[in-house]
Amino acid sequence: MDDKDISNAVIARLPRYYRYLGELKNDRIERVSSRELSRLMHVTASQIRQDFNNFGGFGQQGYGYNVDYLYDEIGKILGLDHIHNMIIIGAGNLGQALVGYMNFKNRGFVFRGAFDISQNVIGKKIGSIEVLPLDDMPEFVRNNNIDIAVLTVPKTAAAGIAKELVECRIKAIWNFAHIDLPVPDSIKVENVHLSDSLMKLSYNLHRSEDDTNTTGAAE
């Protein structure tokens, strides 16, 4: 793949392509056209071809795409052909749910440790992982080749923990705290704002209701 910049919109669609291709693979479908993918994903066939052309195309004129090959190649682009060692900081309800979600492991994202400051959870196990004191985190990260830290802590604690993670040379942070983290550009951060997603859903719901009411009034 060329080192050219790929737009965030294209990158955001790659996991969807991977998921739909996985479903086709499970159904033992050997090949698929951009038009067929378009119907499944509600993305135009032209957009699909443009997206794939960013990475070399993958298809053959008159044949379409080999499902197994395309699935594997997109997996490689997403880095899913590597094991990613992760820790979670914040072993409350959300943290426990994330550690227990087996599909992460199936994608190569493996939780190696969990940390908290609460004596109510320290020493308990989430599956096979024992929750350790937060003070143990820096040494654990350095000794266990941890790539990704998942933050499910209050925003008041997130910035300080992020600073510790920077000092530990963490590579990436999956941030569920509602705060922008002050970290160097070399550390990749993916922010997850659950309330933002819910508000977006609310907007679309109410817009749909407004459109229905307007149509009804016109009739």
What does this structure look like?
- There is one protein chain.
- The chain is an alpha/beta fold and 219 residues long.
- It folds into 2 domains: 8-77, Arc Repressor Mutant, subunit A (Orthogonal Bundle), CATH 1.10.10; 84-195, Rossmann fold.
- Helix content is 47%, strand content 17%.
- It is built from 9 helices and 9 strands.
- The strands form 2 sheets. A 7-stranded mixed sheet has the order 5-6-4-3-7-8-9.
- Strand 5 (125-126) and strand 6 (129-133) form a beta hairpin.
- Helix 1 (8-26) runs antiparallel to helix 4 and helix 2 crosses helix 3.
- The longest helix has 25 residues, at 194-218.
- The mean pLDDT is 90.
Fill in the keyword field for this structure.
single chain, 219 residues, alpha/beta, Arc Repressor Mutant, subunit A, seven-stranded mixed beta sheet, 9 helices
